[in-house]
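I had to read the description of the data format several times before I understood it. For illustration, here is how one protein appears when written out as sequence plus structure tokens:
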Amino acid sequence: MRHISTTLLALGFLFCAGQALAAATVEVRVSGVKAKGKVNVAVCDRERFLKQCVYSASAPAQAGETIVTLKDIPAGTWAVLAYQDENENNELDRNFIGIPKENYGFSRNPVSRFGPPGFEDAAIALREGANPVAITLH
């Protein structure tokens, strides 16, 4: 019985180690950044797109380009969004009719005229290992 428990425990560790290896790292290069506040980035699945995304990170804003890295994201189809949080209140500030006052952007840099893009417009495939993503803030 003790041998079986030890074997199962070892297999569990190997399974968990294998899962960690299957994860993606996303290096988001955000351009169009001003040297003020921070840049917030989120990686969202279809269900949580433009809501409360599961994966997020931030970095101090660097004039021109800021790089934000997110690790341990399962491979699959995701959308990446970024915005410059100039006042560091962790929210995309909007005016009285809901138009963003802070610059923002999405993976694949979709053009949106009236409202944000749909998930399909920003969706990208993340694979195991490193995944570079470029976003231009508007």
About this structure: Confidence is low (pLDDT under 50) at residues 1-20.
